Amino acid sequence: MKVIKMLNPNIEYRSDPKFTTGTIGDFFRIRLNKKNLALANLLARMQMNATASFPSISQQQEVLSKFYDMSFEVVPQIMGPEIIMSYVANFVEPVEVLDPEYTYKNIYKTFEKMAHHPLINEEILELSKKQLEDEYREVMEGPSSYALDKFFKIWYQDRPDYEDTFMGDINLIKDLTLKEVLTFSRSIRIAPDAKLGVMKSANSIEMLVRKNNNLDFAGIIRAFDMDEIVNIPAGPQEGIYEEENHGNLQAQVYLGYGYREGRDEKFIHVKDIETEYQKRLVGLILSEYLAGDQSSKLFTSIREELGAAYQVNANSYHRNSLFLINTGIDPDQIDEVIKIIKDEVEKVKKGDIDIDLLKKSKKSLINFRLIAQDRENWQLANLLRQEMFSGYGRIDDDYMDVIKDINPKMLADFANDLFLKESYVLK
């Protein structure tokens, strides 16, 4: 597999001849706060609806269809205290199509028009607001979505810039003006920017980018990578309990464990990326061990003790110093399921770990990686991580060995760094 790296450190494309489709992306780093997240989501929706070169939904969709159903997505990704504004296109490789007009040059030009030239007018603004409002209302009707949103608002009650989960504050979005969106769009042009991609011929795209790169996007020459990772601490509060009753047939139970490390700091600055990488993987293993599938500790414990096989999830939000466990349960069994969750976490802290299940959990992550790394979108995301953090690529090459070396003591040490900060129940 060949990697093409231009003189500009923020541009990297990878050749992989086995794919029949390619993917290109443009990524901008922006500071996370409530207003920026609202603006990012609104601008993203506006650009997915229409752009300056294709000024209506039908025109933009017609162009994408003409390019053999090329997809174009704009997604603001939350990564710790930052937003990564991601513009990504997936396309059929030109060699797969007998069409002289379907070339890397035309694919790239079309992507650039959509990614770099938004259409910002009142009509698209109001349409996009309405779409987001309708989508938000629909999602929030689901008890699990409402509960997750409420959980994070409680978790970050002292730092509201980080409380929004998937879209941003819908009330802020509704109040945004055309001028604010235009100003935000212009600010992206100077934000740190990385152009990345995976396709059959990285050389072809490299030459196009070198020739056509918009020099007015000043962020392309700004440092995109960092020599440290900045995480959001869990904060000093603990033992928070909140319950709401909406009359649902199934209760949503969320237990949020925070990391003790740096909990009183404003941010956690991590220089040792290798140790941080290992700690993140230990968190993923613990998630799999506790709630990976029907053989996981929490699933089997709940089934055995409560006579029911409810779905249980565990997620390690490492950049947020949060280990979150949640389940749906009969409202009459809330106290019992909370006790089971706490007891299983305590067992891990004491080193009472099922070795066979730990091995199975490690194997599950390795198998997932083996499957995922042959997908273009995973490779693109991995390129992004390498571009963001100095040394990540070298460390990530040892992924399998790091997973294999994780032992019961490392799992126990990780669990002992956790404290129960928040319990939220929605009936």
From TrEMBL:
Peptidase M16 C-terminal domain location: 277-365
GO molecular function: metal ion binding
InterPro entries recorded: Metalloenz_LuxS/M16, Peptidase_M16_C
The protein's name in its UniProt record: Insulinase family protein
Biological source species: Lactobacillus intestinalis
